[in-house]
Write a structure and sequence with these properties.
Length: 241
């Protein structure tokens, strides 16, 4: 069953149009990857949540003012499916991230492989894995935020919805906001179905203006869940201190 899931995942990863993704990200700071995971893979990942041995820590959002609901960070070694997603998505996203660096006039570049980037993180003391599972019940939500965990921050991350809207839960929309200089914030909702992924900017992204590129600040969150239970997989590429 795992081999079948991996084969299906590899097929979907090979079908990604990276030029189209770069264009979507340039236009709005987010890009959709429809049906990245199948229903069985989604259910299998969500079923890991009660198994504490798979995780390094649990965060109850209300205790920290993050919102309502909870999430768990995976421990190393990551589940095979999660590790495969992280390592296979990274190279294409690194190419986009490096184009952003050049557009913003930043000399630093991201390595071509996830292993090399994580080696850079670990050398700086960022040793803790950051992929996570989030669980929301009725009334839960996630405040607008940015996932910044240390000196080395990869500028893109991925969220995969593991539950099916309208069947498993209602409400709970994935929300992005963009703050441009001297302008009101712009809000966008990613229309996710089960297995869909959204790639989005972690912190800042470049926008081409009349006088060159400038930075806009991005934040993301989840609106209030009205009914049911919502699970999400988060793929963050930098590790944490």
């Amino acid at each position: 069953m795992l081999a079948e899931k991996m084969s299906l995942l590899e097929t979907r990863l090979r079908q990604i149009d990276w030029d189209d993704m770069a264009a979507q990200l340039a236009a709005g700071g987010a890009a959709m990857l429809p049906a990245l995971l199948g229903a069985d893979a989604c259910s299998g990942l969500a079923s890991l949540y009660p198994r504490d041995e798979a995780f390094r820590s649990r965060v109850v959002m209300a205790r920290h003012g993050f919102g309502s609901g909870e999430y768990k960070y995976f421990a190393y070694p990551l589940p095979e499916l999660v590790g495969r997603l992280r390592s296979r998505l990274y190279p294409g996203l690194a190419s986009i991230a490096n184009a952003w660096q050049a557009q913003l006039g930043i000399d630093a570049r991201f390595p071509a492989t996830l292993d090399d980037f994580l080696a850079r993180c670990h050398a700086a003391g960022q040793l803790r894995p950051t992929p996570l599972l989030l669980r929301y019940g009725p009334g839960d939500y996630n405040c607008l935020h940015q996932d910044l965990y240390g000196e080395h921050v990869f500028p893109l991350q991925v969220a995969v919805l593991l539950s099916e809207p309208g069947r498993d839960f209602s409400g709970g929309e994935f929300v992005l906001t963009e703050q441009r200089p001297r302008m009101q914030s712009r809000v966008e909702v990613a229309p996710l179905r089960q297995g869909d992924a959204v790639v989005f900017a972690v912190n800042q992204r470049p926008v081409q203006g009349a006088r060159g590129s400038y930075r806009v600040t991005m934040r993301h969150g989840v609106s209030r869940v009205r009914e049911g239970q919502r699970h999400t997989l988060g793929i963050i590429f930098h590790d944490a201190q």
